[in-house]
Amino acid sequence: HQSDGSVVVSTNQVIKPVGTHVEFRGRPNAVVLSPDLKHAAFLNGTYKAIIVLDITTGTVKQEFDAAGSSASFSGIVYSKDGKKLYASQANGRIIIANVAADGTLALDQLVATPKSLIPNPRRGAGEGNSYPGGLALSDDGSTLYVVLSRNNSLAVLDLATRQFVAEIEVGNA
């Protein structure tokens, strides 16, 4: 913290926050607001995987660590009804969490992302961590689309069966 109100972050960038801000441990990579606008969930890169903030009080509601601390660079989304939260992990998993009425999370399941369903001449099929990133839900909430960064693809997760049913090549990055 600097005397002029600015903050020097770990990357030597200087920021000057506007409005109310809440500090917590880690490095927030992505944020999503709950559908009821009462909570914000942060994909947190270097501490607990997800930090849940209470918007009305400006306080940390939960440091969710049931899935470890391997948050990805992007990928966090609430279901439309706010009862589920989905998040990407750098270690090749998707977090599926139940959301309680007070906004706190409880682990439902961890789903491993496919290493690769598509043969790649440079790395071969099924090799390495696919490194999931961005997430999107279908309009009806039955399908989760998962960016697989190292696969250069989009994976399709059927949420009823919790199985990946397809992988779509998208080209480099």
Task: Report the average pLDDT across residues.
Answer: 89
Order of helices and strands: EEEEEEEEEEEEEE
Quantity of strands, as a count:
14
Strand fraction equals over 45%
Poorly predicted ranges (pLDDT <50, ≥5 residues)?
A: none
Helix content: under 10%
Strand order of the largest sheet: 3-4-5-6
Main sheet: strands, sense, barrel: 4 strands, antiparallel
Structural class by secondary-structure content = mainly beta
Distance between the termini: 36 Å
What's a quick, concise take on this entry?
This protein is 0% helix and 47% strand. By secondary structure, the protein is mainly beta. The protein has a 4-stranded antiparallel beta sheet, with no helix packed on it. It has a 4-stranded antiparallel beta sheet with strand order 7-8-9-10, with no helix packed on it.
